Inverse folding.
């Protein structure tokens, strides 16, 4: 509940006005049976037509006033609910954006999407209905019972029996439904995850003819979701029939006990009609309340899931007085006994890393698949924090820096080339917002991307589709490299960013980066020894450990793993240029 109250604070007035006007509407509704009783007992019984017309005008007035109150209540309830959901989405998106890779891995992308969309929408509907009906319905139910005592205290005892029975039914189903709806949402996460995986990997699925296996896996997950959804639906569906049965039994009891009193003249026909109307009002309100309870039950389950996200710390401990500058004459990057163990792993992915990289140096990182190359460089910009040892940038522990400052000092080209919908210019300016056209073209020249951008209509203003679908894999990689170069960061990390480039283009790009005017410290992760043979320092990783470091010539003579990689690639036709 605290996550709901947190975002409803801005709408205190709306949260008061909406239930208040619903309360007024309920009061006018409770007066209707009394007016009908008066029409029957005084107007119809005495044949007083003018009195009947006057009371009918009162009924119309009560209806119009009730309608106005309902519209006002609905407006303010919707304003509060939509405003709460809007604020919650903004806050949730901001909180998720501050997650480290560890928290993102733990929660899962599909689960985060479900919580930001489906869960927030359910919560919005629940708050809206709560403000409108959670006060009105109890007022009608208990107000009808109180008014029944004013009409006929003896017959009103039927209400005293019916209402507690209905309360047991309603709240019993609520208690049973909340944990079930929580399970429904978790199954929905799984279905969303599979759908996302299939849509993003549709080409790979088709390439390997795995459509049937994916369909089978989806049908299994969807079947589990359907099964728990159906079971939950059966439990909650008991609400309406049980309330109808109890209320109609109450109506039968009223008629049964009232008939002798009407015959003997101890009770008027108008009083009987009023008692019947009050019981009918209870039935109608309980049906509304049942539907509201379904929504609120789902909303509470969703609120707990959203609250769990907000309760998840961002993982990045920021220093009380974060630094925004390094120590003079210090290495650009230094690892001292650094190790990283992922939260879900039982063993370190990288351990015992020790090296220093001075400003202007080129550091090559090579190793087999899964050896920890990307994990190692991810510790420099604090995508993951080292679980042991220290990673330093410009002489300071990376955890001492202001995170935004640190990330502006380290430019990363990830393994997967990611471009955003917009233009070439808007994508390159992610590196530096105020970069001039000359600087953008210079970065494109260095990345070997200028030629194909010139051929595009609009040049720097050429359109880029989502994920860069209108560019080839090699072109996307070169644009990502250009974006990193635009930032002119002191440290440049190229994580296997030349895998889609041919040898000639990659050689020209490598030569251009070596001659950058701002002289950054460059980290190059590659599967090719030719891409890193020129490096001042080469780190060879095997199963998360640095098994060799030195120059190309030193490692050829002193590191078996590097020599094996070199020979396997060289025999396959790799050139050393």
């Amino acid at each position: 509940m605290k996550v709901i109250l947190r975002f409803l604070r801005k709408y205190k007035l709306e949260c008061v006005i909406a239930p208040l006007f619903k309360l007024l509407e309920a009061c006018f509704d409770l007066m209707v049976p009394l007016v009908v009783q008066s029409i029957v007992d005084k107007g119809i019984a005495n044949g007083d037509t003018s009195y009947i017309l006057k009371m009918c005008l009162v009924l119309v007035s009560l209806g119009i006033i009730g309608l106005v109150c309902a519209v006002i209540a609905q407006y303010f309830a919707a304003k509060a609910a939509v405003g709460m959901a809007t604020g919650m989405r903004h806050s949730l998106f901001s909180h998720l954006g501050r997650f480290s890779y560890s928290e993102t891995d733990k929660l899962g992308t599909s689960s985060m999407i479900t919580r930001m969309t489906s869960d927030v929408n359910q919560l919005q509907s629940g708050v809206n209905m709560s403000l409108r009906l959670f006060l009105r319905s109890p007022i009608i139910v208990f107000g009808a019972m109180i008014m029944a005592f004013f009409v006929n205290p003896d017959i009103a005892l039927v209400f005293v029996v019916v209402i507690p029975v209905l309360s047991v039914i309603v709240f019993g189903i609520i208690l049973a439904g909340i944990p079930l709806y929580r399970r429904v949402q978790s199954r929905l996460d799984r279905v969303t995850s599979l759908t996302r995986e299939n849509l993003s990997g549709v080409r790979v699925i088709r390439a390997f003819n795995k459509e049937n296996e994916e369909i089978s896996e989806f049908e299994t997950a969807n079947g589990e979701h359907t099964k728990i959804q159906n079971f939950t639906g059966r439990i909650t569906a008991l609400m309406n029939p049980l309330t109808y049965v109890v209320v109609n039994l109450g109506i039968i009891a009223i008629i049964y006990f009232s008939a002798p009193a009407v015959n003997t003249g101890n009770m008027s026909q108008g009083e009987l009609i009023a008692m019947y109307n009050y019981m009918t009002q209870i039935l109608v309100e309980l049906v509304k309340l049942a539907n509201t309870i379904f929504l609120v039950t789902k909303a509470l389950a969703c609120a707990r899931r959203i609250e769990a996200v907000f309760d998840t710390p961002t993982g990045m401990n920021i220093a009380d007085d974060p630094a925004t500058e390094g120590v003079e004459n210090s290495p650009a990057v230094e690892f001292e006994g650094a190790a990283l163990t992922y939260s879900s792993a039982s063993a370190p992915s990288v351990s015992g890393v020790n090296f220093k990289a001075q400003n202007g140096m080129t550091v090559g990182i090579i190793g087999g698949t899964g050896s920890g190359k990307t994990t190692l460089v991810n510790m420099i910009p604090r995508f993951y924090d080292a679980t042991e040892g220290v990673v330093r940038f410009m002489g300071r522990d990376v955890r001492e820096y202001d995170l935004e400052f640190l990330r502006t000092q380290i430019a990363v080209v990830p393994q997967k080339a990611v471009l955003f919908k917009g233009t070439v210019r808007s994508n390159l300016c992610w590196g530096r917002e105020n970069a001039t056209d000359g600087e953008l073209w210079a970065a494109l020249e260095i990345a070997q991307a200028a030629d194909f951008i010139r051929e595009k209509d609009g040049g720097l203003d050429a359109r880029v589709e989502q994920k860069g679908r209108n560019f080839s894999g090699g072109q996307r990689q070169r644009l990502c490299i250009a974006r990193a170069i635009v930032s002119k960061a002191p440290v440049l990390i190229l994580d296997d960013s030349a895998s889609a480039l041919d040898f000639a283009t990659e050689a020209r790009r490598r030569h251009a980066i070596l001659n950058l005017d701002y002289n950054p410290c460059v980290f190059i992760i590659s599967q090719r020894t030719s891409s890193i043979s020129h490096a001042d320092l080469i780190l060879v990783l095997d199963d998360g450990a640095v098994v060799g470091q030195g120059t190309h010539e030193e490692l050829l003579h002193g590191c078996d793993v590097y020599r094996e990689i070199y020979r396997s690639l060289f025999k396959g036709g790799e050139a050393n240029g």
